[in-house]
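Re: your question about Golgi apparatus membrane protein TVP23

S., sorry for the slow reply, the queue was backed up all week. Below is exactly what I fed in.
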Amino acid sequence: SHPVALVFHLLFRTGAIAIYLFGKLFTERNTFIFIICVLLLSFDFWTVKNVTGRLLVGLRWWNDIQPDGTNAWVFESRDPSRPVNPMDSRIFWISLYATLVIWLFLAFFTIFEPTWLIIVAIAITLNMANVVGYTQCDKDAKKKWATGFAARAATNPNMFGRLFSAGIGRFFG
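Result:
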């Protein structure tokens, strides 16, 4: 469990939404609200991408620019034999998707007040990047695990027999 990582994971996300929604109650200066929101959104993006994703779900992603100018996505994942804390993982994934949904919902209200459109656009862009990055990273990790499991099973024919007998033994035992 990583309670400090969870706090910061949720703090920056909820802080940006709270300042966006309730900033007018504390100050009339839109520029100040804009700067605080963008800073919180930037802190959130960096923290999720580089710290909490690695600690809470064992995943990390980045985009590498090759010498020929093309982009290559790079995904890191934890060893599948080291499971993550289920509560950490659940909070990470729920907050990742819920925050994007909240910002998309708030985007509809910027039609009536377009001065806030840039904050919502930045929020959606940064949150969407993390959602896409981590979703692809999770798929890549599952594919690598399945491929590794299949390779180990092919080189060790007794593996399935042991797994099967362990399963039957647990069922009847």
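The radius of gyration is 21 Å. The first strand starts at residue 59 and ends at 65.

Happy to talk it through on Thursday.
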